[in-house]
Amino acid sequence: MQTNLAQWAKDSPDGKVIDEILRKCVHCGFCQASCPSYQILGDELDSPRGRIYLIKEMVEGQAPSAVSQTHLDRCLTCHNCETTCPSGVEYGKLLDIGRELIDEKVKRSFSDRLKRKILAKGLNSALFGLSVRAGRRVRALLPDSLAGKLPLARVPGQLPAARHARKVLLPLGCVQPDLMPSIDAASIRVLDAVGISAYDLPSRACCGAVNFHLDETQSSLQQIRHNIDAWVPLLETGKIEAIVMNASGCGAFVKAYPFHLRHDPVYLEKANYVVEHVKDIAEILAPFGAELGKKLRNKLPGPVAFHPPCTLQHWQGLRPLTEKLLNELGFNLSAFGESNLCCGAAGTYSLLQPEIAMPLRDRKLAAIDGGGHVNVIITSNMGCMSHLQSGTSKPVRHWIEVVDDVLST
Ligand code: SF4
Ligand code: SF4
Questions:
Q1: What's domain 7-105's superfamily in CATH?
Q2: Among 96, 262, 309, 322, which residue's Cβ finds the most Cβ atoms within 10 Å?
Q3: Could you tell me the distance, in angstroms and rounded to a whole number, from the CA of residue 225 to the centre of ligand 2?
């Protein structure tokens, strides 16, 4: 499409990037069918093409409004449109830049700012674990929307000593150790079983995604730089060979560090170095599929549905690798329709946009197990797990927990 950027946009640090991305879009609309917010709301302005148009209008000089901001907020940043687009439009980058620009020009309502501030502070707080434990005790008194976000506690169990020569860092992140410590424990045990010791640094740190998606960009950048400063020396001195992620949302965000640090040449170089060493847990276990499969043969529950999170399939392109591994491990995977579509979790999205997130969850669960034939739903991201679990009595688990269950018995 043709563009005519306003002078302020041309002069902005991202002017060239915005222009290049916009020019690639031919307005064909192929992306519409893969857009979850468009599927639910049916409004062109809640689709990728509509949002691209809103961003184009803004950078061409039209004053953005709170209505435009709402349409951008309703995007789940699932990147499904990006993997569908035949023209290679980097929608995700355009949206991130567009959101930052619109937030500079349109002030959010007091209640919206307060909600975002509380979420950012609460999820990054050292007291988060305390709140989770207190919430579990009074679960029956909580509103359904909040109770659904508190997964039942699963005991993490004993951890092996770091005894192997191969070592990796397993950053435990911000909320997972309190909400679902069994995922990290299972990851450490399964890695140990194939000869890799995993550990985290004493001080837990968020990858930066929570703050970034709640408009706390500077805090997010601080967390990103903090992580890079902590990780680079470990990689450079050979104390670890990789940084392993067992939450695809965190892995996807960390792999996008170079984009977030695009205006900081010193950290950009370090970020590129870090990203070369970031692996999803499926990537690090892929060479061991057949070996582990022998130990798991006929012991896994079946049939099982694998929900590939958007951050795994659309952001990182790891769906084929993960499904190949799951097949080698012996999972009896049950196929289902619309597996490319977001489940509605999308980080804090399900808390901020429940009127879109809940129908998407129910649509996903109906597609996965409409016939009631599936025993367990497995996935690769704790956010998707707890969101889906809030709508079904069938167990929803990280696949690494299921593998660990069998190996540990
Ligand atoms: S983003 Fe891609 S698929 Fe969507 S309208 Fe533009 S060119 Fe077509
Ligand atoms: S990222 Fe997802 S929700 Fe956002 S426009 Fe693209 S397909 Fe729609």
A1: Alpha-helical ferredoxin (1.10.1060.10)
A2: 309
A3: 28
